[in-house]
Amino acid sequence: MSTNLFELGLVPYFIQQLNDPDLMTERLARVMAVQRSKSSVMNGASELTVDLSPDLIQASNEARPTVGDWVVLDASLTRIEQVLERKSLFKRLGAGSGTDLQPIAANIDVLFIVSSCNDEFKESRLERYLTLCIEAGATPVIVLSKADLVAEADADDFIERARKVQADVAVEKVNALDPATLDNVRAWISNTTTVALVGSSGVGKSTLLNSLAGNTVVATGAIREDDKKGRHTTTHRQLHVLPGGGLVIDVPGMRELRVADIADSIGTVFADIERLASQCQFSDCHHESEPGCAVQQAIIDEQIDARRLSSYNKLQREDALATTTLAQKRAQGREFAKMVKTVKRFKQNRKPDY
Ligand SMILES: Nc1nc2c(ncn2[C@@H]2O[C@H](COP(=O)(O)OP(=O)(O)OP(=O)(O)O)[C@@H](O)[C@H]2O)c(=O)[nH]1
Ligand SMILES: [Mg+2]
Ligand SMILES: [Zn+2]
After folding, report:
1. Which residue's CA is the nearest one to ligand 1's atom 13?
2. Residues enclosing ligand 1, CB less than 6 A?
């Protein structure tokens, strides 16, 4: 099936980056999926599986193409030569003990943060996603799924809780299985909008995608009844084109969402705490047991809850740690590059031995 570049979400921001408009006929493409060093890309005529140029193989995780990227292929259409500058990038710190940033989705306009109307719903998880979303440069929308499985008043309680996390973020409740409940969600998706679906495994991201597409484009999973946890049905990130226009990246549920580089967005998501913090007696107040702490006072006065402060502190600590490790890594990388250069220069200047 061919999909023209505009149906893939091409906008002037990317066209302007091409040094030759002829590249648009075949060589400009969008990354639909990534499997190790191979990428699946769509160039408007067909879907191709391509490699990376040697430069990109050497590049950092962040600089390598990820799902949603706009790329320029070489003339033989077998490898990616260039990744165009991104409009947005949703990323996390690599899973496990990794200290690399892992790009999740590029050039997304809207992030649907999906959470269900049951025990899976956690304010702190939403706060985590929100900081990463704002840092990425995308608009967040909180989608509350499985509203059909609870009484209306209970679903409305979840809406209230979500609104309390972030007053100015849209919150939409849905039954992801029923397309008739998706008008509010659909309103966020224009023909050139790219949406990414994120949230825990089993919350209904793929179900939502199928309902938006009007047919089954991806598999959805059953929930284990014992612990209501999903089974990680979706195993890789994939960009899908909706038949009625718009693009959706389905992201597998992530067990771990470690943050990095979120110093600025923490201030946006926790504007209430930062506003209070500016009134603490000590400018370096940790908001624990210091005298004259305006944040602790607000907790006593029930203006904010202790959970929110502890979530703020946790994200701050995690970010500080990640930033230090990443800075060290980047410095090591620079040192190494310098050393390689010196060795090269030394070799070039060396007089022949004869
Ligand atoms: N009743 C009801 N069931 C839902 C809803 N959303 C999802 N489900 C069911 O929940 C199960 C898991 O849905 P998936 O769409 O596979 O979940 P997912 O978020 O894609 O999970 P991963 O791919 O593992 O990340 C399926 O059995 C769906 O039918 C909803 O709004 N209402
Ligand atoms: Mg899924
Ligand atoms: Zn304080």
Report:
1. 204
2. 145-146, 148-149, 174-177, 201-207, 220-223, 230, 232-234, 252-253
